[in-house]
Amino acid sequence: MHVHILGICGTFMGGIAALARAAGHRVTGSDQNVYPPMSDQLAALGIELIQGYDPDQLKLKPDVVVVGNVMSRGNPLVEALLESGIPYTSGPEWLARHILAGRWTLAVAGTHGKTTTSSILAWILEYAGLNPGFLIGGVPGNFNVTARDGGGKYFVVEADEYDTAFFDKRAKFVHYRPRTTILNNLEHDHADIYPDVASIQWQFHQLMRMVPRNGMVVANAGDANVMHVIDMGCWTPVERFSSGTQGDTAWYIAVEPGGDYSSFAIMEGERSMGEVRWSMVGRHNAENALAAVLAARHAGVEISKAIEALREFKGVRRRMEVRGVVDGITVYDDFAHHPTAIHTTIDGLRRRIGKARLIAVLEPRSNTMKLGSHQEAIAGSLAQADRVWLYQGPGVKWDVAASVATLGERARTVNDIGALVAEINDFATAGDHVLIMSNGGFDGVHGKLLARLRERSTG
Per UniProt, where does ATP bind (predicted)? Predict the structure, then answer.
């Protein structure tokens, strides 16, 4: 089969391309921005890439066109596709029909932590010898690829609630029909398609309708929005977890007071099921780990084996990833872009570094951030940082500086990357930790800052 993919350089669609190629299909694709590293990864798989969306690419006569959700009506290629009669489908639907059918799907859903939790879960299953397939919206350090078919019956999928395609406005995850489902948390996000939390909960409710009675829902009992989804209707056994005691039967995390969560105990009621010691920090990551352990347990992995796997978990790229250290200044890259994720990421790093100076650098880049939906929560999410820089890009029309006015002189807003790098370079000293947060490339600011610091060091 010849599969042609529109929007192929996105993480999800690039993963679809890799899975289709591994299944023996001829794969081609196009995107508005074809550039490394995704272009290199796809080319290495023998996938032909086309720059842009010229309708002439339909002359390839593919058997099916897989349409990414970046495509919309009015695009010349989309209009030509609709007129051509060539079969087309969405990425989630293609995945469900050609990869997930007949397999035990473990879906990881929630506003925050999907990529990390999916990566942990896939690694636990791998460590247990189950050879899982997976499709993850990031690069797990234990695998160094975003997707693989695997040889076993299990498949881990990061279950995104964003809409499927221009012709299918349901959440992506409703296509996956999982047997095991994790609901990590639920907040208002994707404000470009969801007006409020209730509209997102309705989509999560559709997911609950598809989990079978012999399945399992692993749900965060400490999240009222998640529990409301369960109360809306759930026909599947529910395993509840939290970061604190939630009744005699709940699974929860026990940690030393003031601990950074690099070590914690997994508890069931009053009984400790084992001590985790790993390279990650932060309560959110401990919750991610506990959810993954419980999901793996449903697939038959003993908790003791899962804890062994956690000790060898290597993290995920762009999740508090150290990009470099120059003259004692550590520069991190993190995907945090929602106020809750920003807060938990900063809190985790603060617990690790203690009283060392923490410099937070934020690009409000997501569609929700650009709309200003979370502007009132930004200052609070950054409160534990010693100094803050925010970049007001051209797509952000609201007053970023005003949103962090309560931080006083600790916060600076700039609209030029060069100026941003220069100011941080002038301010940072040995022992500082510079945490750069964005859900995009941030114009390569990490590398530019490290290069500037090296120039300062050798100059």
Answer: 110-116
Listed residues 284, 311, 338: the one ending a domain: 311
Q: Give the closest residue to 320 by CA, choosing from 294, 345, 350, 347.
A: 345
Q: Is 169 annotated as ligand-binding?
A: no
Q: Is 110 annotated as a binding residue?
A: yes
The reply to whether 406 sits in an annotated binding site is no
In three-state secondary structure terms, 327 is coil
CA distance 397 to 119: 35
- The SS3 call for residue 132 is coil
DSSP string, 150-198: -SSSEEEEE---SEEETTEEEEGGGGT--SEEEE-------TTT-SSHH
| Domain of residue 356, CATH code | 3.90.190.20
Instruction: Answer yes or no: is 245 within a domain.
Output: yes
Residues 299 and 251 in one domain: yes
Model pLDDT for residues 225-277, shown as the tens digit of each residue = 999 999 999 999 999 998 775 554 589 999 988 888 999 999 998 899 999 99
Split into its structural domains, the chain has a count of 3
**236 annotated as ligand-binding:** no
Distance CA 435, CA 430 (A): 15
Report whether 431 belongs to an annotated binding site: no
Cα 335–chain centre separation: 8
Q: Are 179 and 215 in contact (CB under 8 A)?
A: yes
CATH number at residue 20: 3.40.50.720
Same domain, 220 and 255: yes
- What's the burial of 46, exposed, middle or buried (CB within 10 Å: 0-12/13-18/19+)? exposed
The domain of 437 spans 321-458
- CA angle 146–16–439, rounded 5-degree value: 50
Q: Within 10 A of 397 (CB to CB), how many other CB atoms are there? A: 10
| Listed residues 91, 126, 155: the one ending a domain | 91
Q: What is the pLDDT of residues 102-115, one digit of tens each?
A: 999 999 999 888 99
